[in-house]
Specification:
This protein has 13 helices and nine strands. The chain is α/β, with parallel strands linked by helices and 372 residues long. It has two domains: 154 residues, Rossmann fold; 150 residues, 3-Layer(aba) Sandwich (Rossmann fold).
Amino acid sequence: MALELATYLDSLSQTLKKEGYSTEESFLKLPFDEDNLREVMEATKNLNVTDVFVIGIGGSSLGTKAIYEALFSYTNPSTKLHFLDQINVEKIQYLVKDLEKKDPKKTAFITISKSGKTLETRKNYELLKEHLPWKAGFHEILITGKDSEFPINREKATTLTIPQEVGGRFSVFSPVGLVPLALTKIDVVQLLKGAMQATKEISENPEKTIKNVTEVFENYKNGKKIYNIFVFSPKLKTLAFWYQQLLGESLGKENKGFFPAVSEGSKDLHSLQQYFAGGTQNTQHEFLISKDENKYQQTIMKAVQETYKEKQIPFRTHILEETNEEELGKFMQTKMMEVLLLAKLLEVNPFGQPDVEAYKSKTRELLANENL
């Protein structure tokens, strides 16, 4: 098993040396792609905005939101990101009223859909366009795939392209994540630096990663098929939801995979801990915390860990050295590489989400029948 994973990691290292994005694993190259970074910097350098509306869903917004909320949970950034990741007519009507009070030159809309067909994204864009008097000063950015037919005025909008082989949940280091984050003055260079560092560490010293992944897989084989991401730093909560999507969509195939759950410490110790410790033993845990978290949270987490050790409940811990761009980039690249290894052990394809497409198709049929 270890030899198989080591061989696969070696093949991933070879992927980094090839030109272009030729395989689905090529997303690993994004942090190293200087053209990618240059394009993002060029698109954002002259935009001095105070409000950015990110219109996208799932992998098109969740990674961005995770980084933004981790860094700005307790502060008030000069540029705010607003996420439209559900079809919510009331919210859009509220936003439109608020936007009418703002300087349009200080507002940007970033619409993200690789296919250009994502139902929720297209509908939110259409609703905004319907209700908002589109003034000449609004900045529009479209981030999409090469063959997309998203209904946007390309002459008015700045358009950036997602590499065709890069899937949504693996796209945070592409323009999908970098453009909105750069507009908030988040240091995307340090974010990419962290991702590069993670890639280098895992490639050069794979033993720790292989051991971690193998233990998670062995726990799975022993019936621990719920994977609970136990967050003890509240500012990392959305990061946990990004991680949840990564695990769920990548591994939940062919009647295999984990059910990825997210729990908040210490709040959920008063709602779920009884089950985790005393209920059906079908859960393994990953504790997620930052070293700059307060001592109360750290102490409570240690108490839970000691309890789990006594009860032989499997867990592992990921500690961010600090809540900053470099550490977040490192975490995300590490988890994306881990999920490739877990997919190899589970013998599933980590790319695509065929069973998500079924609901999309049926929704389109129903909406057409209802003339919506």
